[in-house]
Amino acid sequence: MRQVFVHNPYVYSSEPPEIKNVYFRYGVFERLKRGTPVIHGGAHGRFYFLKKGLGACIFTDKNGRSHIFTLVLPGQAFGDIDGITRETVNCTDMVIRPSEVLSIDYETWYKHIGSRAEILLISAKSIINRHDAMMEQMIANYTLRIPERIKVLLKALITTEFNDYRIGWNKVPFNLSNVEYAALVGATRVSISRLFTEWSFEGLLKKNNRELFVHTDLLADVYDWMIAD
């Protein structure tokens, strides 16, 4: 699953308690509809923490096709990478499910994180972890075939803290559409649909309404340099 770095691709890691505390103490609570972008970067950008729902960092290529850098899961910050630099970049942080967030402005971030060396170091390490996840995702999408990419993504999802990973059947804790799977791994919706149909026929994957279940036999050949064979 990991080829270079130590963090799983396709998903961020949860924020350290010291960073969470700043959001919970000083954050402005918002409920956002699915597809709502958040303001990040630039002079008026804000820093966000996802309490509930699902988010993503998305960019659109020169051909108008959307790609997802990584998913943002509950308990994770987003919009802070370019929030620190205050630069405006060609990507959009948004919620892709109805969500609840906490947001703080730059002045609040600087007062309680940016100007305190011990907290800033913790924040920097957390941001580096997110960069690792993004880069590991790009490495997977660049070096693996589409079926391997999907397996890596599924394993990254079912080994998050939101799921009790076990040998046998595992429920994918977040219901993604085939379009979203395709945007994450750089494939087409049709390719995803064909693979899921094939794996379902082989008894390695099953659906119950929108819920997806994966058998660990499907993931047996997922490479991970951190885990010995």
| Sheet with the most strands: spatial strand order | 1-7-2-5
Q: SS-based structural class?
A: alpha+beta
How many alpha or pi helices?
A: 7
Distance between the termini: 13 Å
Layout of strands and helices, then pairs:
Layout: H1 17-26, E1 28-32, E2 46-52, E3 55-60, E4 66-72, E5 76-78, H2 81-85, E6 92-95, E7 99-105, H3 106-114, H4 117-143, H5 146-158, E8 169-171, H6 178-185, H7 189-201, E9 205-208, E10 211-215
Antiparallel strand pairs: 1-7, 2-5, 2-7, 3-4, 3-6, 8-10, 9-10
Give a short synopsis of this structure:
37% of the residues lie in helices and 22% in strands. The protein is an alpha+beta fold and 229 residues long.
